[in-house]
Amino acid sequence: MFRRKHHQRISEVLQRLDDQLLRDHACYFGGGTAVALMHDEYRESVDIDFLVSDLEHYRDLRELLRGPQGIAAITKSGRELVLAREIRTDQYGIRTAIKVGDAHIKFEIISEGRIEFDTPGKLDCIDNIATLTRVDLTASKLLANADRWNDDSVFSRDVLDLAMMKVSQKEFQAALAKARPAYGDSVLNSLSKSIDRVLTTEGLLERCMTTMRIDTPKAILWQNIEHLMGVAGVDSMGGGNE
């Protein structure tokens, strides 16, 4: 049982999904919510993101959800989900919102064409729903950080998620090898810049902690950021040490 009320609502949605169907379509739970739930709910995350890297599987899921069953096509028998808005689909993703109590939870299945996901292991799951592997979670977070590291509305969530994951150097290098073909050297450069921004912008970390309801002590966040710098081989001045 998760301790944060909104995470309990997310868990309720996950438990109603057809875990085997999603596995069969290589559709895996990822994003910041997966990271937060895996790491003692260090921050509050509000959305549910699934990712698919196989175009054929994404096409099949898109057709299922556009069909007469709608969201019931990916839920367990008798475990209904109530939509707060209609399902919308395009080449990039399948999007809707699910009503749980008085909350509306954004739900997306994203077509991730930049990297190919590995098959999750037995331990890669939350509420029996398969998640991205640690390497693939790291790779997807590196790409997200490269896209939006200097966006004030993001509150540095990608670099903080990466820090809280405390990946090994081997895991980081494997993730970097997956992310680099998509964005080249900007993956590592953007990571260095985002770390520098958190470390040097007065009050930024405190604002991030308040906005995302981070309850991990600031000293632990600093330690984890320093660990990330070490495994990534970057400093906090916008450049790498490689």
TrEMBL record:
Origin organism is Polynucleobacter antarcticus
Gene3D superfamilies, per this entry? JHP933, nucleotidyltransferase-like core domain
Name assigned to this protein = Nucleotidyl transferase AbiEii toxin, Type IV TA system
| InterPro entries linked to this entry | AbiEii
Pfam families noted in UniProt: AbiEii
- Top-rank taxon, per record: Bacteria
Write the lineage as a comma-separated list: Bacteria, Pseudomonadati, Pseudomonadota, Betaproteobacteria, Burkholderiales
